[in-house]
Design brief:
By secondary structure, this protein is α/β, with parallel strands linked by helices. It has a domain at 169-413: 2-Layer Sandwich (Dihydrodipicolinate Reductase, domain 2). 33% of the residues lie in helices and 23% in strands. The strands form three sheets. A nine-stranded mixed sheet has the order 10-11-12-7-13-14-15-17-16. The chain has a six-stranded parallel sheet with strand order 3-2-1-4-5-6. A two-stranded antiparallel sheet has the order 8-9. Helix 4 packs parallel to helix 5, helix 6 (172-181) runs parallel beside helix 9 and helix 9 (237-248) packs across helix 13 (436-460). Mean pLDDT is 92; it is low at 1-23.
Length: 461
Amino acid sequence: MRLSFATIALAAMLATVPPFASSGAEPSVRLITLDPGHFHAGLVQKFMYPQVSPVVYVYAPGGPELEDHLNRVQSFNTRAENPTRWEEKVYTGKDFLDRMLRERRGNVVVISGNNARKTEYIYKSINGGFNVLADKPMAIDPKGFNLLRKAFERAGKNQVLLYDIMTERYEINSMLQRELAQMPELFGTFETGSLAEPAVEMESVHHFFKEVAGKPLVRPPWFYDVRQQGEAVTDVATHLVDLVQWGCFPNLVLDWKRDIKVLDANRWPTRLTREQFKRSTGLDDFPSYLKRDVGADGLLQVYQNGDITFALRGIHAKVRVRWNFEAPAGTKDTHSALMRGTKANLVILQGPEQQYQPVLYVENKSGAPAGEFERVLRAAVTKLCATWPGLDVKPAGNRWEIVVPAQYHTGHEAHFGEVTQKFLQYLEQKRLPEWEVPNMIAKYYTTSEAYRIAHAKQRKR
């Protein structure tokens, strides 16, 4: 097989996202990008990291997805502000996976692309002795979950790290909501809730057609095939289930066999016209593998909507994911979250009233007079100011708004750099926190079990 390496030109100096001071030694981390079919693979390289070599080896089949990835990295190299200096060396032979495993050009494999083979890629990389930083979802069905568990077992034996990219943990309102929920003087304790009224509710609304890094995002056609991309309850819902675990039981180990009961799950489609599909992918018609998903009305049915209701150590939670084709003018993807406590509710909203920017509110349900509750709330926010200086509180009708300075709203794309920095710190320490691996397994059990339940319900109709 002919080896074809193409090199992206170098640009100027490092971008400023140092996870910690560089010692001046040779970079200890060498990245490999495996089959990058999703734009998230490029976002990992939106910034430079002192301990990471600028030379990145890419192993992938040739085609527009690879070209798109290389162009995105090149755009980071050539931007006017904080340009990066990545040098991409690309192998495009059909044996790209075997070649990667054999050549061992790096020690960290970044995986973000078509999810049909992702769990296989993860397992084989881990089995080969590589560390893996993987985009979500790491498994899209129960079969994938079983293989993922084996990958985690193998990672322990091989003393390598397997970690998924949970960007939503770095959104400032989610971080503040989590911290306030751990202050019993303000929040009390979590309500247990019920199937009808969960104690925790989260919803994420996404759009197939949007801009990324200032340019219209071209989706690969397989993105609309849930057998390759995964569907709502095993894809985007991964983020929401993670936030429930991370927010309700921070830094605690969860047992997927004992601590979780999936109570209900549902799935339903977004219907797209051929014109919408063409606008998003550039293709005139649906490919053959999508024909089975085209209804009698000629619309493509994409099962990227779903919900999961589950009990986590007795706390009832519900997560919901919706996909529309395009956001109305002036709007974007949105996230909402409600945590019900015995003394207060913590609510994140991102609708018209918030000008489609996420805002965290606190609702008084303690029975204490407004003045007394305000004093407790301000004392809680003062504690948070030790980490995030400048936070404030202001009344907003019958609730209170947490006022967050603009510098903490770093944006979704920047969160990829923050996740990568955290992963690099774990690499230096040669271990993940004790709770991370069991909680990743718990998360993917929840989503894969929801997949099983939702499909079983639909078959009975």
